[in-house]
Amino acid sequence: MRVAIAGAGAVGRSIAGELLENGHEVLLIDKAPTAISVERVPMAEWLLADACEITSLDEAALQRCNVVIAATGDDKVNLVVSLLAKTEYGVPRVVARVNNPKNEWLFNESWGVDVAVSTPRLMSALVEEAVSVGDLVRLLRFSHGDANLVELTLPEESALAGTQVGDVQWPEDTSLVTIIRGTRVLTPSREDSLEAGDELLFVAAQAREEQLEDLLSARRRPEGTV
């Protein structure tokens, strides 16, 4: 997979390093000569250019990219790069970094963004995830379909503990994608049983999040009650 990353700062270089380790082809683009540090990510391609300029993106052969990541520290630049990547070059997947949470509402399909990653929101979500059991935590927002990646740790008293995945009537527009159980990552099948303490990851429509949280957090009835 070929990936172009606009912004060769610490964030861009870190992403490039991870992708290269996973066998992908990576191009780093930055207009600041001081940001071009080939020795830091020697396996990547480097381009000294303004990623907001069509001529620069032509030189980068953006039409050959499977993914473009707008990872600069400037939200305006990330929006322009995303829009050009999607509309001018038809890049299938565009991921954009959100630096200021106040601008998050702009990072949607209208600007060519498929996935918006807000560092402050993600850090906040990870803190919540670490301390919350039974509360739904939003980890990532997808622009298409108004869907989010959400997580909930199944509490001990949940009525669904011990229930098979296939027997649960999940809310409409929600999909259980992963069960994290201790050190194991499980791809859920209909026969898998939910256990207290499981971290459940869903892709869910925002309008269904409250319903999903209510379902997973519902307490068992005490024995002997109807």
From TrEMBL:
Single GO MF descriptor: potassium ion transmembrane transporter activity
Presence of keyword Nuclease: no
GO cellular component: plasma membrane
Transmembrane segments: none
Residue span(s) of domain RCK N-terminal: 1-117
Record keywords, A-Z: Ion transport, NAD, Potassium, Potassium transport, Transport
Top-level taxon of origin: Bacteria
Pfam families registered for this protein in UniProt: TrkA_C (PF02080), TrkA_N (PF02254)
Protein name: Trk system potassium uptake protein TrkA
Native species: Streptomyces coelicoflavus
Source organism phylogeny: Bacteria, Bacillati, Actinomycetota, Actinomycetes, Kitasatosporales
